[in-house]
Specification:
Elements lengths: L1 E6 L2 E4 L4 E9 L5 E8 L6 E6 L6 E3 L7 E6 L4 E6 L8 E9 L7 E2 L3 E6 L1
Parallel strand pairs: 2-11
Antiparallel strand pairs: 1-3, 3-8, 4-5, 4-9, 5-6, 7-8, 9-10, 9-11
């Protein structure tokens, strides 16, 4: 298993930037595809970005393309989400998630970190 702990959330104004971090412990971090999800009040949890085990392949939701960047440092067992040009609609609880190699779904989740963007 892997344990995930997010940090870096907070309150920012529209147009500003924020970087989220997710520290992993436990089984080999590099064996996990990692992702960031978010859930706004009254809405479903949606995927924001994913990154492959090596970090060579990334995907993004259309709503964040060009503004958010996912990255990972396998030596530090950490995945990041750099968020720029933030908008009020980015306000949500952001979750880090891990999917072990060969598994079909994300089974490992952090506790979430709140991001609030004021207009």
């Amino acid at each position: 298993q892997v344990q995930l702990v997010e940090s870096g959330g907070g309150l920012v104004q529209a147009g500003e930037s924020l970087r989220l971090s997710c520290a992993a412990s436990g089984r080999s971090f590099r064996s996990y595809t990692m992702a960031w999800f978010r859930q706004a009040p009254g809405k479903e949890r949606d995927v924001v970005a994913t990154i492959s085990r090596s970090g060579g392949i990334t995907t993004y939701a259309d709503s964040v393309k060009g503004r958010f960047t996912i990255s990972r440092d396998n030596a530090k067992n950490t995945v990041y989400l750099q968020m720029s040009s933030l908008k009020p609609e980015d306000t949500a609880v952001y979750y880090c998630a891990g999917r072990y190699w060969g598994d079909a779904q994300y089974d490992y989740w952090g506790q979430g970190t709140q991001v609030t963007v004021s207009s």
